[in-house]
Amino acid sequence: MCLVSILSASICPAASFTATLLETDNDGIRTGRFYLRDDQYRIDVVEDGRQLNILVDRQSGQTRVLVPSEKVYIQSDNQDVVSLMNNPFEAHAFVADNYKAESFGEESIGSLVCEKRVYSTQGKKVMIAWVSTILGFPVKLENPSNNGIVELTDIEGISVDLSRFRVPVDYQKVDQMPIPLPVWAGDIKDAPVLKPPFEKRLAAGQMLRVEPVVDYDIHLVFQNPTSRMSNYLSVAFKDSRPLRRTSGYNLSANSSGTLSTHKESPSQADVIIVRANSGDIIVRADLAEAPEGIVLKKNRQKANTGRQFPIDHKKPTRFSVTDVPDDGVEASGELILFTTITTDLGGGTIVYDKKEFHREPLNLKDGAVKIWQFEAEHQIGTIDVRVSTGALDLRLEQPEIAGVRPPSWPISPVETYLATSAGQAAQGAVSGKTLAAQKMGPGRMVLVLDASGSMWGRIRGQPKISIARRVLSDLIDRLPGDMKVGLTVYGHRRKGDCRDIETVVPVGTLAATTLKHQIDAVIPKGKTPLSAAVQRAAQELRYTEERAIVVLISDGLETCDMDPCELAGELATDGVDITVHVIGLQIKKEDQGYLECLAEKTGGLFLTADNSKTLGDALSRIVAKVQGP
């Protein structure tokens, strides 16, 4: 082994050395320790207030992340998305294998002579590396997208003991990294316990506890009563551990209110913690009915308004309308039921349409109630209620789990439609147009691109982001010239930030070259706030009478505490004709439900692209929908 001091700047190849690790980004400077011996290296860092030891073995291709305070570790492949997102040295190895490198000669980093290499794609710099000519290892890495820099300093050529690269025998392997306890966890026991409904003002550092209630959700509305920014959190705990990360949310000065809903039951959580992290907040808590085993939606509609309920057509449904007697006006309106027509084209490609099944007038007074109950075989996917006079309270119930009948449901409904199969239901339908036939003209479209870190994963050797770029490029080429198109991207600028959503190209006249250039420049990095991204796209499209289309390309599940299926229901009643088409890239069958629901409930297509054939089918189906009949 070659053992020399850094003063001589002569460390032999495949050396054993230690160094100080410096990581600089927009959040400041963090330090750690780095150890290397042959094909193994170790990084010791502090993250979220706790020590982590990251052990990388390039010969076995495995990374292990140890949490000494918990005596646990997780294991993953070096080329796994999580490793690439969190380890800049493995990210460099991946980039070096997959991107074009240009040498800019030699530069000195400290006392080491390095070759400067710039990696790029589509004319955009992806990474800059300074690789020591003696060590054969990068001692400085720069990420041009966020100006983040990682550098090894104080390099010392010493023999690193192999024990540093071993997992202690008393450590347990776990599937997920345990969520760290916040520094204020010890104060929870002294926080007051309040029962909804209540309203409470909290100063910075103060907290309160709310215990979950059987058959009820807890609605929390947060306000900032001051002229300065404040920050708050609400998080459920079970067995003295948080069920999610305890990051906070900002409230702008004099904000009117932000809603957070906790659906945890007493068996799922022991307590919900509400805390003012900085500034003052006012929290108002109310109970919202949530019967056991039931997904419940309630709404009051007044005269000259309407509500459309997208529902899971694979489950039975109980729906009621009740006259609101307080106004003294007889309620009148109309009820329209739509069946969901499902076509499986094979290869994971599924097409959803809806067809009118039944229509009837509504006339109720003096608090009268009318109830319908449908079995799953009827495949009712949408209920549309329009109120002409008076007011109606609407109530929709479905079981949480398909095939499990809620205990509160009566065996015999007040009123039901007796078609014995989905086929008979369709044959007995009132004449009506399919969704596609109702949508005419080119309209407006927002393309939503998933740029979360998992998009570096591969399908048959190709990065998913490359496939997504090709999908969108081909789609853009086939759109009608008078289509107005915009582009929204998420997860491309910052790691771990659910607010990382950007309208890259506002909705406007189709500019194919601009759109393609912006798509090619996207570098995946962060989380998957897909629901919030679709929501933002819908907001861009809402103030128009033209039909609105959102095309989402994603490879995974929502990771930012929103439910795509619930969002679909909100979009359906948002005052604009919005259709969401979803192309899923190599999504497991068991993970497709939420994205299927997002497409289905808005009348869109859910398509998977696992190979070139299904990719072509996906494009053809979406273009056919966009162009209309």
What would the keywords be for this entry?
about 625 residues; alpha+beta; outer membrane lipoprotein receptor (LolB), chain A; Jelly Rolls; 4 domains; 12-stranded mixed sheet; 6-stranded mixed sheet; about 15% helix; about 45% strand; disordered N terminus
Topology (SSEs and partners):
Layout: E1 16-25, E2 28-37, E3 40-47, E4 50-57, E5 62-67, E6 72-77, H1 81-86, H2 88-98, E7 100-109, E8 112-121, E9 124-132, E10 138-143, E11 148-156, E12 172-173, E13 198-202, E14 207-210, E15 216-223, E16 230-238, E17 241-242, E18 249-251, E19 258-262, E20 271-278, E21 281-289, E22 294-302, E23 305-310, E24 317-323, E25 331-346, E26 349-364, E27 369-374, E28 380-389, E29 391-399, H3 422-427, H4 435-438, E30 444-450, E31 458-459, E32 462-463, H5 464-477, E33 484-490, E34 501-509, H6 512-520, H7 530-541, E35 548-554, H8 564-572, E36 578-584, H9 593-600, E37 606-608, H10 612-627
Helix pairs in contact: 5-6, 8-9
